Amino acid sequence: MINISNLEKKYKNKTVLHINSLSIEKGNCIGLVGNNGAGKTTLLSLMLDLIESTNGEVKINNENVKKQNWKSSTGSYLDEDFLIPYLTPKEYFEYIGKLHKVDKEAIISFMNENKSFFDFEEMGKKTYIRDLSKGNTHKVGILATMLFKPELIILDEPFANLDPTSQQLLKKKLISLHQSGTTLIVSSHDLRHLTEISDRIILLEEGKVKIDTPNNESMLEKLESYFILNNEAV
Ligand SMILES: Nc1ncnc2c1ncn2[C@@H]1O[C@H](COP(=O)(O)OP(=O)(O)OP(=O)(O)O)[C@@H](O)[C@H]1O
Questions:
Q1: Looking at this predicted complex, what is its ipTM?
Q2: How confident is the model over 45-60, as a mean pLDDT?
Q3: Cα 140 to middle of ligand 1, angstroms
Q4: Taking every annotated instance into account, which residue ranges of this chain make up the domain ABC transporter (predicted)?
Q5: I want to staple 92 with a disulfide (CB 3.0 to 4.6 A). Which of 56, 87, 186, 204 is the partner?
């Protein structure tokens, strides 16, 4: 589904990401980890054509992401810049729904299905996104990626700023999407959550893929040792 070849991103003369080759299969749930500055957001931004690569390319469904055809089948949320602050969550969902041909009734059912994660009754209809707390703002962005049932969802640190109950709900939601065949790429510093949802772990170190391995029972322990023992190989 996603093929990366010789992908490089430099700022001035500093290479912040260099991946020779990486393929992500349809239905994979990738947990992307790495220290601050390892290149996770850079990689996700290149996948979404938000920044220009210095060299190499990302293809989604065999097409360079620059061609933009992936947009109709990809939900993504990296940060608040994806949102429209002067809309209410409901209005924002209607906006996304229009882009992806989701009718108003389907949007209402989606909001009802997800009311334990985000209280649309209380905040969804009258509060502008700009006035929501950070956690609730992220919830709107995260849910919007799922509204139109895309085949690929890309999330950057979705567990950050969520309360513990919401983290559990999000985890369940991601597991269920994975089980129904959605391809997921999720970056996080929360190793426990990530190892619970992923079938494959990719660890970036200084812009390079240090580890790329199927998830297994001992993965959490191995990753914890990697981060505690100052980044010795897992
Ligand atoms: N616009 C920019 N100009 C210069 N350097 C940048 C720019 N954007 C990112 N970088 C650098 O690229 C490197 C990778 O950053 P990136 O945000 O991808 O890391 P990350 O793994 O997502 O980190 P974190 O866990 O802190 O979110 C960092 O050294 C960062 O300073």
A1: 0.98
A2: 97
A3: 24
A4: 2-231
A5: 87
Q: Total domain count for the chain?
A: 1
For residue 194, being part of any structural domain is answered with: yes
- Tell me, yes or no, whether 233 lies in a domain: no
From 15, 17, 41, mutation site for ligand 1 pocket: most ligand atoms within 8 A of C-beta: 41
* Rounded-to-integer distance, Cα 223 and Cα 220, Å: 5
Helix (H) or strand (E) holding 185: strand 183-187
Residue 119: its pLDDT value, please?
Answer: 84
Asked if residue 136 belongs to a domain, the reply is: no
Q: CATH number of the domain at 179, please.
A: 3.40.50.300
Cβ neighbours, 10 Å, residue 71: 16
Is residue 112 in some structural domain?
no
Residue 6 amino acid letter:
N
Instruction: Give the number of residues written for the chain.
Output: 234
Instruction: Give me ligand 1 centre to Cα 42, in Å.
Output: 6
Mean pLDDT, rounded, of the chain: 94
